[in-house]
Design goal:
CATH class: Mainly Alpha
Largest sheet: 3 strands, mixed
Strand order of the largest sheet: 2-1-3
CATH topology: Rhopdopsin 7-helix transmembrane proteins
Strand content: under 5%
Radius of gyration: 21 Å
Number of helices: 10
CATH superfamily: Rhodopsin 7-helix transmembrane proteins
Mean pLDDT: 86
Number of strands: 3
Length: about 300
């Protein structure tokens, strides 16, 4: 019989076991080398960005404050998953405490929501800076930027907290093997031996609310920006505006494409090889934090 938690609740195991990458167990140690390298680059790059923005008063502007928010979010996302993942790959330390797993689940999904919100805010900032340059400081003063950042964080906490509560109420009947490298919501929920309809419906609701709203604002901003850029009299000004917009679009695509792939294949991708799905899910948490400081 599988161990149960100390409270005597027979429906909860005391711990889960993270399999890693099912089907690629023999090469996980080698796969971990580039993942570790990416994590080091992400940690150093985002830490440097935060240090430079903090120490240079000239960078205390909306664009750089949003960049600082993005760096903090990337550090939380990668640090909440990668160290344990490397322990699984290199040390075969598969066990993760039940409540630690729920906590990791919360941080992953809450700060994914925060990152989406920050990218949306950055798109708004680019729209205002390019389309209304003279009113930019009046439309987005520092108090408004800080308030927007707090609202984005609050949205993530409020929307994602039910994930852990819903997963906590499920009976697991001793099932412990999570076929994943970290405690992703649906990977954990699939172990339950009761109805998971509420989890699935709520997960879809949150995904459509967050991704739907943020992607609408981002798309609208980048539809309006080119119209204004093409009217700029200076060729250099047009190139500069397109350059900053292109770099931001690269960051958006590196976040949304693997994220949507992971979300959809968990629910509908029955023919996608499981190890490929897990690899994309890992890159979803590592590629944006690694690329963002470089871009």
């Amino acid at each position: 019989m599988s161990p149960v938690n100390d409270s005597g609740d027979q429906s909860h195991p005391a711990f889960f076991l993270l399999v890693g990458i099912p089907g690629l167990e023999l090469v996980q140690a080698w796969i971990a080398i580039p993942l570790c390298t990416m994590y080091v680059v992400a940690a150093l790059g985002n830490s440097i960005i935060l240090y430079v923005i903090k120490t240079d008063p000239r960078l205390h502007e909306p664009m750089y404050l949003f960049l600082a928010m993005l760096a903090i979010t990337d550090l939380v996302l990668s640090t909440s998953t990668v160290p344990k993942m490397l322990a699984v790959f290199w040390l075969r330390s598969l066990a993760i405490d039940f409540h630690a797993c729920l906590a990791q689940m919360f941080f992953i999904h809450a700060f994914s929501s925060v990152e989406s919100g920050v990218l949306m805010a950055m798109a708004l900032d680019r729209y205002v800076a390019i389309c209304y340059p003279l009113q930019h400081s009046a439309i987005l003063p520092l108090p408004v930027v800080v308030a927007l950042g707090c609202l984005i964080l609050l949205r993530g906490v409020i929307l994602i907290s039910p994930f852990s509560f819903l997963a906590n109420r499920l009976p697991y009947c001793g099932h412990q093997l999570i076929a994943h490298s970290y405690c992703e919501h649906m990977a954990v929920v699939k172990l339950a031996c009761g109805s998971v309809r509420a989890n699935v419906v709520y997960g879809l609701f949150v995904a459509f609310i967050v991704v739907g709203f943020d992607s609408f604002i981002i798309a609208t901003s980048y539809v309006m920006i080119p119209k204004t850029v093409l009217t700029l009299p200076s060729h250099e000004a047009r190139l500069k505006a397109f350059g900053t917009s292109a770099s931001h679009i690269c960051i958006i695509l590196s976040f949304y494409i693997p994220g949507l792939f992971t979300f959809l294949t968990h629910r509908f991708g029955r023919n996608v090889p499981h190890h490929f799905h897990i690899l994309v899910a890992i890159l979803y948490l590592l590629v944006p934090p690694t690329l963002n400081p470089i871009v």
